[in-house]
Amino acid sequence: MSIFKGSMVAIATPMNEDGSLDFESLEKLIEFHVDNLTDVIISVGTTGESATLDFNEHSKVIKTTIDLVNGRIPVIAGTGANSTSEAIELTVSAKKNGADGCLLVTPYYNKPTQEGLYQHYKKIADQVSIPQILYNVPGRTSVDMEPKTVYRLSSHSNIVGIKEASGDKQRSKELLSLCSDNMQIFTGDDKTSLGDLLDGFSGNISVTANVVPKQMHMMCKYAMEGDIEKASELNDQIDVLHDVLFCESNPIPVKWCLNRMGLIKKGIRLPLTWLDEKYHEQLNQALLGSGAVNE
Questions:
Q1: Of 211, 190, 223, which is closest to residue 254 (Cα–Cα)?
Q2: How far apart are the C-alpha atoms of 250 and 228, rounded to whole Å?
Q3: How far apart are CA 200 and CA 217, in angstroms?
Q4: Per the domain annotation, does 253 fall within a domain?
Q5: What burial class does residue 207 get, using C-beta atoms within 10 Å of its C-beta: 0-12 exposed, 13-18 middle, 19+ buried?
Q6: Residue 103 and residue 257: Cα distance in Å, rounded?
Q7: Identified catalytic residue from 5, 135, 221, 255
Q8: Does the annotation mark 135 as catalytic?
Q9: Is 77 in contact with 41 (CB distance < 8 Å)?
Q10: Which of 144, 145, 183, 186 is the most exposed place for a label (fewest CB within 10 A)?
Q11: Phi/psi of residue 163, nearest 5 degrees
């Protein structure tokens, strides 16, 4: 059943200082991830600033990512929206452009019921034949998709997994118990990812992997093999990043780090702003401590 696994980076979308898209840096980022063993790239998710890319930009970044990766590793397109018709349109476009799968966040702001969530995802899966991963992140969307709703959706042939980013250990166990026979369960919370992977999750859809892709790949590999000692040792090296990369709203800190690493320019779109100077030294020390940069 395993389609996707391991370290699945929710890749940042590089931008110029005026906020325009920077495809030259995108190519540099993709090569960085391929060279450093990232298992799967997630294009234009939350970390990729999907909320401020228009439809054409959204589709162009996904297509360019797929073209640049050129089949070396899977590419999953972020195609979620709080409008079901828009999510379908984005998912159709991603399939046309050659995505290996799609990641669909729960509809944000309009706060659908559990039945509304079920009907939303069922309609997308009925209309577009591509592997689809549900994405539950109540801290950002203000809607929580309950395990019983996930279970109802897990029998659909086009729905292959869920990214669970609540960080709730009990929720993780409930999803594994209810749904793991029908779908893959991915963690979307770097801080709890080691425990989730040791419990049987299929991979980590990660923000931290933007900065330390090789360490995250190896941590996931060892954890999924059940090697607690090696996985824990690696996780200890990068654990500080799991915290500091959320000192301001994602992807503000991770973009600062990637700029510090020389991989992207100093570009982000309003209403997000560049990282407050008071956090610079804290992040710099985390980068040094994790081995992402040298002095």
A1: 211
A2: 29
A3: 16
A4: no
A5: buried
A6: 25
A7: 135
A8: yes
A9: no
A10: 144
A11: -95, 115
Region at 167 (left for phi over 0; alpha for psi -120 to 50; beta for the rest): left
Altogether, the residues listed in the chain come to a count of 295
Round to whole Å and give the CA distance between 27 and 30. Answer: 5
Q: How many Cα neighbours within 13 Å face the side chain of 271?
A: 2
According to DSSP, the residues that pair with 133 across neighbouring strands are 103, 161
Residue 97 near residue 128 (C-beta atoms within 8 A): no
First to last CA, the chain: 44
Peptide bond into 271 cis (omega under 30): yes
Global pTM reads: 0.97
Q: Which residues pair with 101 in a beta bridge?
A: 76
SS3 196: helix
Whether 89 is covered by a domain: the verdict is: yes
pLDDT in tens, 56-108: 999 999 999 999 999 999 999 999 999 999 999 999 999 999 999 999 999 99
In a domain, 96, yes or no: yes
**What's the CATH number where 58 sits?**
3.20.20.70
Cis before residue 253, ω within 30 degrees of 0?
A: no
CA distance 261 to 111: 38
Catalytic residue, chosen from 63, 163, 221, 255, is 163
Query: Locate tokens 């110029």: which residue?
Result: 16
Q: Examine residue 249 and state whether it is found in any structural domain, yes or no.
A: no
The DSSP 8-state label assigned to residue 294 in this structure reads: -
Count of structural domains within the chain: 1
**pLDDT tens per residue across span 113-158:** 999 999 999 999 999 999 999 999 999 999 999 999 999 999 999 9
Q: Residue 162 belongs to what H/E stretch?
A: strand 159-164
Q: CB within 8 A of 114, min separation 6: which ones?
A: 145, 146, 148, 149
The chain-wide mean pLDDT, for the chain, equals: 97
